[in-house]
Sequence to fold (446 residues):
Amino acid sequence: YAIFEDANGVVPGTRVLMAGVKVGQIEKVELADPRTAKLTLSIDHGTQIPTGTTALVPTSLVGLGDSPVTLQPPLTMGAPLAPESTIPGRKGSPLDSFLPDSKTTVTEINKLLVEVRKLISDDKFKQDARTLIANSNRTIEKFGNLAGNIDRLLNRNQSNIDAAIMRGSRAVADVQRITFQVANLLEKGTLQKDAQAILTQLKATSLKADKLVGSMNALVADPNLQKITANVADLTESSKSISKDVGEIVNTGKSIAANADAVTKNGVDISKNLVDATARAKEVTDNAIEIEKSVKELLDKVNKILPSNGTKGLQAPPVTLNADLSHSGDLGRFRTDLTASLGVAGGKLDIGFWDAFESNRFILQYGKDLSPAVGYRYGIYAGKLGVGVDYRLSPRVSLRNDVWDLNRLRYDPKLRYDFGGGIVGWAGLENAFRRNTPVFGIGFSR
Fold:
């Protein structure tokens, strides 16, 4: 037997299903009491119904067709029910036909709505949201001020920038010319004959260059040069004191004499240090002259090897020079990145230094475009293994993504805006998801 509070739609002869298989039919439908109905189930011989089974009468949204009574066994099978046993029954929801767990889903949705309402009504959350918006506004304002400062800087130094770009263009042209000539020599096989002599000359030039760099470093770190700077500062302070005392020259003659004596002593020290600095600068100049002579000898050897009829050889690869100056907001320091992009078969090769003139971390990455809007890079970035993906969002705006340093994974996303004329702007984050350091900058590309 099955007891239901609502047996609407069930008539004698209605099929009884279990796991979708017919196991019997409804023999009789009668009123057990004013609030419940009693159904007599005729179960096929040999069918066992586990203890804990419930009967379900589904409800259809359309109301057409047969509505069989379904027996739902428990998840854990128990002993089979004895004949004449009574099981509970219930009326199904119209959603059970296509959403069996609709009640659970609605319950979870209600819980989610309650949690969302608690979050929205939380005063701390509101304050954090306001703080975030305020910080974003300040960041945007600082970026606007930085852009204005950069614009003024560019306007003041336009002539210097143009001259630097012109010199860079000439340097690129020289590199392309030498590359073309070397490729032509390699193709003809004439370079191999004098390769040993050229390598020997290059080694000597490299040694002299190292000596020049050492001399320059020694000059910069020379205590005498630093003492000159300190003495100049003392001289400036003494001059200020003398100017201040001119109005009271009658009453402060002793002070003027003392200041004049200090100026004289500083002048003597400056003269001594200038002599030492001049000697050091002469040493650096001599090394530079030796370098120039070595390079001239090398070029003379190359010119002797070059054919005089100007025969064309391999096409020189296109070269693009990039110089980027960026400022980290939290760290409060500037960083310079210098790279040269060489066009190679099917892609490009980036060679340069990350944080040039400071840590000088090496960059060597091969890049290729997957489509006009997407490209990838891989190799060495900032002296670490790294990969990069670049997205072109518009003709002037692109997004650069760099992931590097496997031991302490770092992700740097930055937006790049092309102002035109080889001038670009940068804005983004460094070490995202860890420090989230904002970074802004400007770059030049030729």
Notes: The two ends are 90 Å apart (CA to CA). The helical segments are 102-121, 123-156, 158-188, 195-220, 223-245, 253-305. The first helix runs from residue 102 to 121.
